User: Fold this.
Amino acid sequence: MVFDFPGAEAAPRHYADFRQTLVEAAPDEGTRRRALDILARLGMAEARVHGIDLAEVHFHEVADWDSIADILLAGFLLERAGVATASASALPVGSGRVQTEHGPLPVPAPATLELLSGAPMVDDGQPGERVTPTGAAIYAHLAPSGHLPAGQWASQGGGYGLGQRALPAIANALRLVVWSAQGSEHDRIGVISFAVDDQTPEDLAVGLDNIRATEGVVDVLQISALGKKSRMTARIEVLCRPGRLEEVAQICFRETTTIGLRMSCELRTILPRHNATTDHEGRSYRIKTVVRPDGANTSKVESNDLADIEGAGRREALRRGIQD
Assistant:
């Protein structure tokens, strides 16, 4: 597949230019979403390292066209493969220094180290830069676990990417394997939680609706609790796609009065399900059918399709009639 890079005579340098290039070059919304998340992670790492705002980030080593292609193609391939969760072994830490526009810097480079915060790493004795900032941003986008989720998995095939640099006593290769869950589906979900005790109920409701409408958000939960000084507090939990964790967190700050939140990626198990539409008495209704662990099927009519039916008894009778 050929990507058309607008203004290809010179690679962009500033974050906003880099972002616009990816927006214009991405062939579809899924690829665009993933590529922009990778870029945002890279930009925020650079911003933290330099102590500046994201809008002020001026890329150096990662601003060549091959880095743009790496980010865009990574987003494209991950989207086409339908990758929902990832696992990875410990990353090689490397050693020595890497030459940058700021002069020689220790390996891992500062932005790389920022992106790999919390990631398992190992010294395999091989010197040099082993993980680049762009590679680290892709890794952070995937938010991989250190192992496959529990349950049975089947390999759907794999591939190898070979680097040009020769490493003594080790192959300079990256292996990717695609796995599919057998039985129940396993993936990872981003979780953002925080408490709010100083925002009016009306305004908080609007803010949560805006968060709920954000791309990548799966659900938003609001739980009443007692906080400090015995204040009535709203405990908020936002579930989102792992690749959107950072961006959704910024939306939470924008839409609520919270000044701190907790973020994590958690393993979840999902029962197989499928959606269908059925006609009943001249109307169409959406039905979700779930396969339970014992093999039995349970079905439920989409509640929005029953909303204009008057009377709780009539709605329930109609729901059961359609399901049966």
